[in-house]
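User: Fold both of these, please.

Assistant: Here is the first one.
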Amino acid sequence: MTLLISRIVLTLVLLVMIYLVWVNNVDLLKWAEKKAKEYLPISEQSDQGEHSEKLSGFIKEAQLLRKRLNENPLPIKDHNEWVERVNKYLKENLGSAYEVRFNDFSGMTFYGDNSEKSKMSRSLEGRSRRLHEFISEKSR
């Protein structure tokens, strides 16, 4: 009886895979490689120099935004677009774990008031620190 149930389950799994490949034109190998890459540490992934360069570019953008903190009005839209671009890059190229860490400031101490300028400054500082951590981890 158990053997029969196992065969039925295996047949259903195979039918779903065939459906995905033929009907929806899904490339299962590319999908599996992408999913497997999400769980690899950054040091084991390919194109490490490219990742470091891209992360460094994001840090430079943050530095430019930090120089604009005295503008009136604050460049909040530019800041939010930068955060979205970095999040997208991290998720697509390094995995969702890096995206989550990029937005988490646990263990960091910041000073300032509760003004919009201070909030934006802390956001840029915390996210820049995380990007530096990612580059450091990559070089190990």
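And the second sequence with its predicted structure:
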Amino acid sequence: MRRFLVFVIVSVCLLSGDAAIAKSVQLRFKHAAGQIDRYKILMEVNVVVPNMPQLPCGPLNMKMGFVWTQKVLGILPDGSAKVRFTYQDMKLVASERTLEFTKNHLNDMAWTAIIDREGNVTKVQRAGGAGVHTGKQNEVGDGLWLLIGGCFPRESMEVGDCWDANYPMPWKSGEIRTVSRLDAAAVTRGKFVVSKITQSTSGQLDISKVLVGLAQLSPKFAARDRDMLKDFSQIKGAVSVNGSSTLYFAPEQGRIVQADGVCNMAMRMTMPQSMIAQGAPSEVIANMDVRAQMVRL
């Protein structure tokens, strides 16, 4: 009996030692010039506009799938990487209709970014040289990186540790806050040993600034659209964003292996008299639920 107790105590100590070794990890992206990573992304979006029953489609359900390719164009002296993001095989299914994006459309969506080893986006350039900016002022492209890419602290993390970050959104429309937690330092996911990170996201955006910004991104924008921009600028309202996600990151490879997330966006906006006179409702309320999954190919 005494030998059995000694065996149990020694075994527990050994297991505890293994857990201690595995509970601390440093999260770093490991980029190399010419490196190519491909991910399959699936998204499902459900939109409900309760105060507009006249919409013929009723609640709108959309499903989108595409391949997201990241190619490292070069490594900077500080270890940051210049990465080109492109999209392939994009298909959208909505209201029983299927839209397949052409190669030209997908080329226009490409963007290049400088990303440091912690995953922070420090500079973005959209296709054709437009939209260059520095800092964390996200464009449409790196918003995707924010949602399913991940940004890590510089110091090593232990299981249970948390970190947070605030990200200004495009066109000074608001700010998104993320709170992350290291749930596990070393678990198996397929053929990879990964760290499991859970994240909550919250924030609020000024809908008027978002609409004006998106309209100005359109290559077809012209002087005749100035009246539309004036109408958009007079809209009052906000979009509240709340989400959660799980990220599986392989520290040894310095790669994201998988990410899953859900997000709710609740919008309420009051329309200006100029748009009401054109037939718009005085108020629009919309609720959008997004579910996304990203898997490394």
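The longest helix spans residues 2-22.
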